[in-house]
Amino acid sequence: MLPIQTESAGKTDTLRRNALGFGAVLMQGITHIAPAVGLVLTIQYVVSLAGVTAPLAFAFAFLIVLTLGFSLAQLAKHHPSAGGYYTYVSRTISPRPAFLVAWLYFLYDPASTATNLALLGFFLEKTAKAELGVVIPWWLIFLPCALGITVLTYRGVELSAKIMMYLTLAEIAIVLALALNGLLKPGSGGVNFHSYIPSAAPSANGLYLAVVFSIFAFTGFESVAPLAEESANPKQVLPRAIIYSILIMGAFFMLSSWAVLIGWGTNQLDLFVSSTENPVLLLARQFWGPARVLLLLAVFNSILGTCIACTNASTRVFFAMGRNGSLPKALAYVHPRFKTPANAIWLQTVITLVFGLAVGFWIGPDQEFYFMGIAMTLGLILVYSAGNLGVFLWFRGNAKNEFNPFLHAVFPLISTVALVWVGYKSVVPLPAAPVRYAPFVVAIWIIIGLALAYFMKRAGRPIPGVES
Q: Are 93 and 390 within 8 A, CB to CB?
């Protein structure tokens, strides 16, 4: 039985104030984006879609996400809250669309810990078999990591933030060192810039799908927002952390993905895609020999860090929705000593275990990650678009004296159109299975959310708004 606490067991609804400074909040965004995972564990899939232009897919995704970041920063400046996009849409549009935004959000952060741990289990199982001839089932790696993340996030946001910072700095340094090796010792094809020529893509549809998946690689910048109530001076810290995390990760992905392909050899990318062992790990073996274990450490660090960041973000949204009645009030319980949303953390743990293990055994832990990556991104396109609309409505209505045509109209419009366009082109025509079923999962999820909102209204239970 889960240790669910009620208000009678220690009534408090206040998270720890001023617990996080700019550096910790910035690392929340960067860690959630997951630098090493975004490169080491996804570049092979992105190359299978976009070929040599995989770095271009990261570049297009970076530009789209940057415009989204500007919009989110504007909302974070005016509406700092643990609810993130749920709060923003509720205050700028209305509570009912905010409920649907939160419903779509449930496809993302609450499931992200599970999908990332499934991929970690798959990666380590495959690596142990190739390197040591030992078979360690992926779920034996999944379980202790999931429980360890629960303990860390339960005991306090400062502890988890400090661990995230050290893990992330280490993984970035290791991956950039490998990228530098690739540029200094290029493979077949030498140092070239074919990666940034659109016509070099094997197909337009493949490049679009690669852009969508690359947007997924960037997701996490918005996880800064739910830490508003635990951040010092959130109206200044949050917007800066959002933009800087996107800029840093944009430079990281564009440089490291290009350098890794150069190191492998752009004339041999067919071998990169078909490799049964992770090609980036093979490249590390070629350059570093036994020291390639550093790259394994970077991946392990990256996934644990991003899972901590995902859990911190999703549990704060659960907490905010429980606080105002959109979810059970028990989720608003805050541990009296650790000042963490204890019941929300237990709920997140259940989601991680049930979803991660069930889907991993069903379609495989690696396919769980790729399938959910597309599904999450398609859902987030609608979440981000709703936030963009909220920016325009808020500054045209409630903050006219601050209205800036570029920040509050042009950027939101450009990013929304770009998101919808690449989302559409990535699924028309449908990609190969099981990824081809991702848009149908999102559509069914939206229908369920609409049905819930309808029946709540029919039952006389209006969807609550957020706190003013």
A: yes
64 three-class SS:
helix
Other beta carbons within 10 angstroms of residue 44's beta carbon come to: 17
Question: 85 and 275 in contact (C-beta within 8 Å)?
Answer: no
CA-CA distance, 25 to 154, in Å (whole number)? Answer: 18
Nearest-5° angle of CA 357, CA 34, CA 110? 40
Look at residue 50 in the predicted model and tell me its pLDDT: 94
pLDDT for residue 224: 75
Q: Per the domain annotation, does 296 fall within a domain?
A: yes
Would residue 2 count as lying in a domain? Answer: no
The C-alpha angle with vertex 30 and arms to 29 and 34, in degrees rounded to 5, equals 115
Amino acid code (one letter) for 297: L
The pLDDT of residue 88 is 81
Confidence (pTM): 0.76
Instruction: Give me the pLDDT at residue 444, please.
Output: 94
| Alpha-carbon Rg for the chain in angstroms | 21
Token couple for 259 = 């350098």
How many whole angstroms from its chain centre is CA 97?
22
The residue ranges of the chain whose pLDDT is under 50 are 1-2, 4-12, 465-468
What tens digit of pLDDT does each residue of 379-425 get? 888 888 998 999 999 888 888 888 889 888 998 998 898 888 878 87
131 in a structural domain: yes
The number of folded domains in the chain is 1
What is the greatest pairwise CA distance in the chain?
68
Q: Is 231 helix (H, G, I), strand (E, B) or coil?
A: strand
First to last CA, the chain: 36
> CA–CA separation, 99 vs 106, rounded Å?
11
Give the CA-trace dihedral at 103, 104, 107, 110, to 10 degrees: -50
Residue 270 lies in a domain: yes
Would you say 412 and 389 are in contact if contact means Cβ atoms under 8 Å apart?
Answer: yes
User: What is the domain range of residue 361?
Assistant: 10-458
Give the C-alpha separation, 252 to 248, whole Å. Answer: 6
Single-letter code of the amino acid located at 148: G
Q: Kindly give, in sequence order, each residue whose CB lies less than 8 Å from that of residue 273, ignoring residues fewer than 6 positions away.
A: 44, 47, 48
Rounded to whole angstroms, what are the CA distances from 302 to 46, 87, 224? 19, 29, 17
